[in-house]
Amino acid sequence: MPNRRIPPEVKRCAINLYDRGVLDLSEILDRVGFSERTFYRVLACWRETGNVIPHKYGLTTGRPRAMLYDDIDYLLCLVRHKPDYFLDELLFLLEENRFISVHYSTIMRELSRCTISLKKLRRIAKERCPFKRAAYVAAIGQYTPDQLGFIAYLVLFKVNEFIWK
């Protein structure tokens, strides 16, 4: 029989028929269309967890990752802040600030898992213009922090007002 997904409703129905003694096991298997081994596997899962579908999220396979989610977030913040960091600089910052020692390949693998490639990093680094950044800092520098907070509040208020209309 080919590999296929059996709907959970069919599995529950087969278990109910078996538990209540309505039909023999051979008749149940004939009607639902899966093997005896599959039936007993579903029955064991039902009795163990109360569900006919085994949950995969609790099982870990392979070697545990060297970097935790917070470490990866820190790495992404570093890359977004300055995308032209070299891998050895990222490695040094992770050792100094997060107290983890990983290999270059681990950093590159985690960045690729987060869909950040060297091509994207190079493009972001090329798009950064120091003159535009300096012009922005000069333009925004004329306001006090209170004024900037008020402007942000007005923008949020207008957005909410627009949404609720």
Automatic annotation (TrEMBL):
Pfam family for this entry, one: HTH_23
Protein known as: Homeodomain-like protein
